Amino acid sequence: MNNLNFKKPFLRLILFALISGLSAACTDLEPELYSDLTTKNAYNSESDIEAALTGTYASLNPYPGDAYLYYAGYLMMLTDYNTDIGFSTAAGDPTKHSNFTYDDNSRYLRLNWQNMYKVISNANMLLSKISGIEIEEDKKNEIIAQARFLRALSYRDLTDSWGAVPLITEPDNPTESDNVPLSSVSEVDAQIIEDCEFAISHLPEKWAPELGISRATKGAALTLLGKVYMRNHNYEKAKEYIDEVLDLRAKGVYSLNPDFKDEWSGDNKIDMGLIFGILHEAAQNGGEITNHFGPQDHPEIENRWQYYAVSLPFWRKYSEMDPRKEFYYYNYEGASPRDPNTSHGFYYMMPDIGQTVPPSDTVKLLRNVATKKYSYEMISDSYLDGRTIQIFRLADVILAKAEIENELNGPSAALPYINEIRTRAGAPAYGESGFSIPTTKDEMVDALVNERGYELVFEYKRKADLIRLGKYVEVSNEYLKKRGMQPIVTDNLKYFPYPLEEARNHKEMSAENSSRIP
C-alpha cells in the first residue's frame, strides 16, 4: 500500500493505511505483513495492534524508501518557506510559496492536508480497535498514549496551517463524512491537550533499546503540550510543561551537544538533544531529505536539487561572528566541468548586496543558499540516505524557556537561556562587546525572533514562531521589500487557504478561502 493515490478528498480516504515497510519513525517496530489487510481482519491480536502503531508512525514520513512527504520535506512549504527564510528557484509551487503567490491548488497544501489526516485516521482506527484486544494493561496504555500523541501532533500541524479544521476522533465511514463542520482552534486544542495529558501519564522517559529508539516519550508529549500552550499565549501553563522537559535534562535524559554541528552529523543519528524525530536507514527506509535540501553541483554533496533553499536576506542577518553562518554551502567550485574543454566547474559565489553581474563568465552568483543540516558529514551519498529528521529537540525547548521567562518575568529572566544557545553555537552572548543586552520585553522578543531563526532554520518552526511572537506580517513584508517585491502580507495570510479539492465539497472552507489567497 506504499503507493496510495490520493486523488479524492481526505474524508473519502481509507481510514487505515498500514505502511508495509519498516517505520521511519520507529525502526524497531517490525510490522506483520498482510496480504489482504482490512478493518475486519487487521485487529485480532497484539501483533496486529503493534503493526497498526507502526503504520501510524510511518505516516509522519510516508512511503518509506522514497520519502519526501509531510515531515520528510513537504511540511517545509507550510512552515519556513512562507516567511523570510525560504527562497526557491524551482518552477511552480515552490516559487509561489517563497514569493507569497500560492493559491488553493498548491500541491503542498493538498498533500500535507492529506498526510496529516492520514496520521489521524490511522490513530483513530487503532484507538477504536485496541479495547477489544487482549493486551497487558500497562502496555495497552503505552500504545494508546503513542497513538494519541501522534494524533495530537498532526492536529497541531493542521491548526498551525489552517486554523479551524474538521475534528475527527472516531473512525467514521468515509462515505458518510462529507462536509464535517469546522472546529475552532480552541476546540481542537482541547482534544490536543487531552491527548497529550494522557500521553504524559503513560509514556516512559526512555524506552528500553529492544522496544525501539524513536518512539514518542514523555518528553515529546511534554514538549508538544508546552508549545500548544505557548501558541495560545498561556505562558503560565506552558511553563509547567517546558520546565518538566528541562527537569528531564537535569536527570540526564537529554543534554545539549557541545558542538551544534554534531547534532546534524550523519554518524550521530540519535543525539542526546533529540526529543522526538524520524530515523532513517539508507538500506532499509532511506529518505530524500538530503536531495531536497542539499546543494546543487557541490564537489562533496553531488547531484542534489536544493529544492528547499534559504533566502540571502535571511542568511545575511547572521553576525559574521556567528559560526552558524558558515553552516551553509557557498563560495565553492562546482563538481561538473563548465564545458567539454575544461576540468573545472563554475565558481558559485555569494554576491554582495545589489550585485547582479558576476565578475567573469566562470562565476555564477548564488540566488539562495543551501543549509548543511541535512547533509553534514554524510555516511552514504546514496540517493536515499539515513538522515535523522528532528521534530523536537532540546535547543528549541531552551529557547521556549527564554520566551516564557520573558513574558512572565521580563528580559533578565530570559537572558541566560537565549545566551546558552548562542554560547553553545560559538556566537557572542548578549552582554559581550557589540551585543547589548535586551532591556525590555519587546527588545527580547526581537532577539528571540532572530535567535529562533538562526538556530532552528528549516526545522518546520518559522511561520508559527513569527505568528506567535506577533512578527509575521512585519518580518515577511520586510523580506519581500528586500527582494524588490510588494509587501503583500496581511493578517489574513496567517492561515492558508483550504486545499481546493476539500473546499469544493465544504461550504465553510469555500467561504474562507477568498480572504486567504494572496
What's the helix and strand layout?
Elements: H1 46-58, H2 93-98, H3 107-129, H4 137-162, E1 165-166, E2 182-183, H5 185-202, H6 218-231, H7 235-250, E3 274-278, H8 282-285, H9 289-293, E4 310-311, H10 312-315, E5 328-329, E6 332-333, E7 347-349, E8 363-365, E9 368-371, E10 389-393, H11 394-409, H12 411-425, H13 441-456, H14 462-468, H15 472-482, H16 500-503, H17 507-516
Parallel strand pairs: 7-8
Antiparallel strand pairs: 1-2, 3-10, 4-9, 5-9, 6-7
Helix pairs in contact: 1-3, 1-4, 3-4, 4-5, 4-6, 5-6, 6-7, 7-11, 11-12, 11-13, 12-13
Largest sheet: 3 strands, antiparallel
| Strand fraction | 5-15%
First-to-last CA distance: 36 Å
Largest beta sheet: what is the strand line-up?
Answer: 4-9-5
Total of DSSP H or I helical runs spanning 4+ residues? 17
Structural class: mainly alpha
Poorly predicted tracts of residues: 1-37
* Helix coverage percent: 40-55%
CATH fold node name: Serine Threonine Protein Phosphatase 5, Tetratricopeptide repeat
Number of domains: 1
Question: C-alpha Rg, in Å?
Answer: 23 Å
**Mean pLDDT across every amino acid position:** 90
CATH class: Mainly Alpha
Give helix and strand order, one letter per element, not per position: HHHHEEHHHEHHEHEEEEEEHHHHHHH
* Second-tier CATH architecture: Alpha Horseshoe
In total, the number of strands is 10
Shape: globular
Keywords: Cell outer membrane, Membrane, Signal, TPR repeat
Subcellular location: Cell outer membrane
Family: Belongs to the SusD family.
Pfam families: SusD-like_3 (PF14322), SusD_RagB (PF07980)
